[in-house]
Specification:
Number of domains: 1
Structural class: alpha/beta
Largest sheet: 8 strands, mixed
Shape: globular
CATH topology: Spore Coat Polysaccharide Biosynthesis Protein SpsA, Chain A
CATH superfamily: Spore Coat Polysaccharide Biosynthesis Protein SpsA, Chain A
Order of helices and strands: EEEHEHHEHHEHEEEEEHHEH
Radius of gyration: 17 Å
């Protein structure tokens, strides 16, 4: 089975106060967020599409020159930040030619090679059948919380940034999501037709699309239990950046 990874990385990262895209942040020992994700995806994905802001394009072209020349990496441009769902959809001209899609947030430096490989294996085991694969971890004070019903369907994804209240503890993601591509286009169109924008941000979000696939479209959901809560940590603050620089300075995978 051919698998395409999409890395949405068009955010400006204003909260970090740094004049460099988060994807290209140095982490230590010659690594950046990009090279870390690239190396962890190389045995999982047949192709990687990176979604960039216009400002990041020349920087990425220089930093990933050899990767782009290899033909296994490409990029597209999100002219305006309209949400993660819109960003992922920009990769459709490429990923629809593959049988499975692996989405990895562009600041998710903590996701492990093991989790990425397990997600890819679960997608491949599904064959041509539509399926959502979700690596999930139990965390305290989740910023995003996944709620399942008694039938095992993903009933809702609560998002703090959209004003949803999350429980004191619950299931969260590790910025990694697996999808079949066979029925993606049609179900994405139906999701958009249902006015799928955030109530607070007015963005086209991606996470509620997963609940739509589970409940409205009937896609089975395979959950992968992630034991390490640190995998849920992305780079959103200077404290996060300092954490990963200390971690990778010790050359920890």
């Amino acid at each position: 089975m051919s698998l395409c990874a999409v890395i949405p990385a068009a955010g400006a990262g204003h909260r970090l106060g740094l004049d460099v895209p988060k994807l290209l942040l140095p982490l230590g020992r010659g690594r950046t967020v990009w090279t870390t994700l690239r190396d962890r995806l190389q045995h999982v994905a047949d192709h990687v599409v990176v979604v960039l802001s216009p400002r990041a394009v020349p920087l990425f072209e220089q930093a990933a020159r050899d990767d782009l020349a290899s033909g296994r990496v490409s990029f597209c441009v999100q002219e305006e930040p309209r949400g993660m769902g819109a960003a992922v959809a920009l990769g459709a001209p490429v990923f629809r030619h593959h049988q499975a899609l692996l989405v990895v947030w562009g600041d998710q430096a903590g996701v492990s090679s093991r989790t990425l490989a397990a997600t890819g294996d679960a997608l491949r085991s599904a064959g041509d059948s539509p399926r959502v694969v979700l690596p999930l971890v139990q965390v305290d004070r989740p910023y995003v919380q996944y709620v399942f019903d008694d039938a095992g369907r993903l009933a809702r994804v609560r998002q703090s940034r959209e004003g949803d209240a999350c429980d004191p503890a619950g299931l969260s993601d590790v910025g990694t999501f697996g999808l079949s591509t066979r029925a993606y286009d049609g179900d994405w169109a139906r999701y958009l037709a249902a006015r799928a924008v955030g109530e607070r941000t007015s963005e086209v979000n991606f996470l509620p699309f997963l609940a739509h696939l589970s409940c409205a479209a009937g896609w089975p959901v395979t959950r992968i239990d992630v034991p390490d809560a640190e995998e849920a940590r992305g780079i959103n603050t200077r404290e996060d950046l300092a954490f990963f620089r200390a971690r990778f300075g010790r050359d920890v995978e």
